[in-house]
Write a structure and sequence with these properties.
alpha+beta; eight-stranded mixed beta sheet; 20 helices; 28% strand; globular
Length: 804
């Protein structure tokens, strides 16, 4: 075994071998994979080997499509067979809600180039005659679905990697990973130490143990999973063509042909985690004891859906562990807080996602960033608050919901409340209906006293409709209060703070007592943050952005250090409120001795002031698009701050409002939102954030060359707003935009403007098509809804009230 390598990949399952191959594909040859046993040991060898593109996140679905297409490439490169069976697959819908979900997925697939289609029960029966379609309303057919040979595929990845220069060492357990001061690592193994510039944790079932060696915790847990292989079935082996995959979410099962019989697996409710306290090092090519009692209810349902199973004997029961993260998506990317340490773990669908995970991580390592938004699987989406006590119940919940309908407005209950602000009990007494963001409880809306404290999940307008509308009216008609828990906060301090910010941010860095909006760009010019930068005094700044992206952004800041600058994540040490509406200034005047008149406290001013007895930082800005103020203070002062504002605002009609109202209010002004309009999928010119770039500052800010090139050439597509003739369902995200009978774009987000009484969609379309009044159709839940491009905001079009 060599003593030094550019990269050491720990783990020889399908994911580790995929990472190894993709690193060589992108030009890194000095790469070494170390496996404690043999390749495929752990979860890979006993996997059912199915693959599909269905995923609620469009970029994840695209990466799954890439994975599936990659298998032919591997076969051509290596001459090895992956054992591919492209038989197509059908996902059944046995309820109107599930059919809505499949229609929404089909709509997304149109602009992704995936040739899926909605089937009637009769069409399902024609393609998969062994399915009992009683109670089935329809299904989604995907011609890319299929299965493969897990061992053969993993070894094909390995051979392709070795052909590219990689080395693989098996029967060699890693004992320690020790960082050096220069960011490199000493990987200590049973057979010697390897000095590596980078370490990739692709250890699968042992990812937690390997992470502990580096001093970090990765939130994943193995779950015991069972599938059954039947004996020979005449209706299968006499059929002629191979039977398609069938996913029956209502029965918690998936089914495919296996030789002359069938393989059927289950995501049962009576599930249980395995090896919660650590995976034994001597576990390898082994299975767990059968636990048929856990799946007997699911098996009984499967016999009704697939009656042929009743006459088929059970040939074998495969019961083995797979790893899951709390939300079921992989944990991929640079691990926050560590230099040159990378994660490729918790990939429970390795043969659907392994290729995409390998490509993404290799791009990150070699090129600096993936070529798309991968926040859905970025390891930074979970912070240090993610403990084993949180991870285990969330993983169980996710496993049980593997085939559940995922609604856009649904909030899942496990491991909640995890983190709360000092306002939690106050809001709860006022009727808060809660959501969660980055583990923190946030108010979605406030239920009426007699109404249930629960929003019914739906793809259509929910039972929160009227109350959200009332909160919107409270903002637009008077004054309302909302907690600023949806913002991350960073303190940037030091003599070099301004210079560092000028390089890290594309926009103008404000002078003392002022704030500015600015995008943060990757070298490619794509958006990796939209920030408010406030200069409290020279050498002391506050940054605010999306709360859920705080570890993502802090990781970026740490990758671009400056000796004379201290950057600190203070998100949970600064809290407060925003007050918004035409009476917001009148309220603020009552609680401070400072002059907050329009002339003295201008739009985009920031000031340190005392409110009641609380020391605060007040910013003259509001995401509602209305007259408003953001007020920040220490959590110890938050309750006093609220009591002061609440008492002073009673005769002004001060009303609390939540995130549902906020997302409606921002549509009035066509304001974008992080990971909707503003994400690494888009550039500043495409989204309109280029208007905040300071093109004249001398600093060579990150992404400047790419942004200037796009400015000169013009973007190929632009973000625009549509008014939609919607029925009882509004745009959520990724619905296709049809123009003159062709799919020309897609929606980034949307919803209902309660202020204007209109359904609004924000969408990306070709730049040359953007014109006021452009007629289009937007496909919402399978229905074509007429839409018209609009350019005038629905509220305060000239900004007079917001700036006044």
């Amino acid at each position: 075994m060599k003593s030094a390598a550019q990269v050491v990949v720990i783990g020889g399952g399908v994911v580790g071998c995929s990472v190894l191959y993709h690193l060589t594909k992108l030009g890194w040859r000095d790469v070494l994979l170390i496996e404690r046993s043999e390749l495929t040991s752990g979860s890979t060898w006993h996997a059912a080997g199915g693959f599909h593109t269905l995923n609620g996140d469009t970029n994840m679905a695209a990466l799954q499509g890439y994975t599936i297409r990659l298998y032919r490439e591997l076969e051509e490169i290596t001459g090895m067979s992956c054992g591919l069976h492209h038989v197509g697959g059908i996902t059944l819908a046995d309820s109107p809600e599930r059919l809505d979900m499949l229609k929404a997925e089909r709509a997304k697939h149109r602009y992704m180039g995936l040739e899926t289609e909605i089937l009637t029960p009769q069409e399902i029966k024609a393609r998969a005659e062994l399915v009992n379609v009683e109670g089935v309303l329809g299904g989604l057919y995907d011609p890319l679905d299929g299965h493969l040979d897990p061992s053969g595929t993993t070894h094909a990845y390995a051979r392709a990697a070795k052909m590219g220069g990689a080395q693989i060492v098996t029967q060699c357990r890693v004992l320690e990973t020790n960082p050096r001061s220069d960011g490199s690592w000493d990987v200590v193994t049973e057979h010697g130490t390897v000095h590596a510039e980078h370490v990739v944790n692709a250890a699968g079932l042992w990812a937690r143990e390997v992470a502990t060696m580096a001093g970090v915790y990765l939130p994943l847990v193995p779950m015991a999973h069972q599938y059954i292989v039947t004996g020979d079935i005449p209706q299968i082996y006499e059929r002629g063509a191979e039977f398609p995959h069938v996913m029956d979410p209502g029965g918690e099962s998936y089914l495919r042909q296996e030789g002359r019989g069938l393989c059927i697996g289950f995501y049962e409710q009576k599930c249980e985690p395995w090896a919660v306290d650590g995976t034994p090092w001597d576990f390898g090519h082994a299975l767990l004891n059968d636990a048929f009692e856990k799946i007997e209810d699911s098996v009984a349902f499967a016999y009704r859906r697939f009656p042929v199973l009743e006459r088929a004997g059970v040939k074998s029961v495969i019961h083995g562990p797979f790893t899951f993260a709390p939300d079921g998506n992989p944990l991929v990317g640079p691990v926050p807080g560590l230099r040159n340490y990378w994660s490729a773990c918790a990939v429970m669908a390795g043969f659907s996602q392994g290729g995409g995970v390998g490509l993404t991580l290799a791009q990150w390592m070699v090129e600096g960033m993936p070529d798309r938004d991968v926040m859905a699987m970025d390891v930074a989406r979970f912070g240090r608050w993610t403990t084993p006590g949180y991870t285990v119940p969330k993983v169980i919940e996710n496993y049980q919901r593997r085939f559940s309908v995922s609604y856009p407005n649904e909030e899942l209950p496990a491991a909640r409340p995890a983190r709360t602000t000092p306002m939690y009990q106050v809001w709860d007494r006022m009727g808060a209906v809660w959501g969660a963001q980055f583990g923190l409880e946030v108010v979605n809306y406030f239920a009426r006293p007699s109404a249930p404290r629960y929003e019914t999940p739906s793809f259509r307008r929910s039972d929160a409709w009227e109350q959200v509308a009332a909160e919107v009216r409270a903002v637009r008609g008077g004054v309302a209060i909302n907690e600023v828990h949806n913002f991350s906060k960073f303190a940037v301090i030091g003599a070099g703070a301004r210079g560092w910010l000028d390089r890290i941010m594309a926009g103008r860095i404000p002078g003392p007592a002022r704030l500015a909006l600015t995008p943060m760009l990757a070298p490619s010019g794509r958006i990796i943050g939209d920030f408010t930068v406030s200069c409290l005094e020279e050498g002391r700044f506050q940054l605010t952005a999306s709360y859920g992206a705080q570890d993502y952004h802090m990781r970026w800041f740490e990758q671009h250090p400056e000796p004379k600058v201290q950057v600190e994540n203070v998100s949970d040490r600064r809290t407060g409120f925003q007050i918004a509406g035409p009476q917001a200034r009148a309220l603020l005047e009552r609680v401070t001795r400072d002059d907050v008149s329009a002339d003295a406290f201008r739009f985009l001013d920031v000031r340190q002031m005392t409110i009641g007895m609380a020391p605060c930082v007040v910013q003259r800005i509001s995401y509602t698009g209305d007259l408003g103020f953001e007020i920040y203070t220490d959590p110890m002062w938050q309750r006093h701050l609220f009591d002061t504002l609440w008492a002073a605002g009673q005769d002004l009609g001060l009303t609390p409002f939540g995130m549902r109202a906020m997302m409606s209010l921002r549509l009035d002004k066509f304001f974008g939102s992080w990971l909707r309009e503003y994400s690494p999928d888009y550039t500043s010119a495409e989204t309109g954030l280029d208007r905040f770039i300071d093109w004249h500052k001398p600093a060579e800010f990150i992404g400047r060359a790419a942004a200037e090139a796009e400015r000169a050439a013009g973007p190929a597509r632009r973000l625009c707003a549509f008014e939609v003739d919607a029925a009882d369902a509004d745009v959520v995200a990724y619905e296709p935009v049809w123009i003159d009978g062709a799919v020309e774009g897609f929606c980034t987000s949307g919803g209902y403007s309660h202020h204007a009484g209109r359904s609004i969609a924000l969408a990306m379309i070709p730049a040359e098509m953007v014109r006021t009044g452009l007629a289009a159709e937007i496909e919402i839940l399978g229905e074509m809804r007429p839409a018209r491009l609009i350019t005038t905001p629905l509220f305060d079009a000239d900004g007079a009230r917001m700036r006044g």
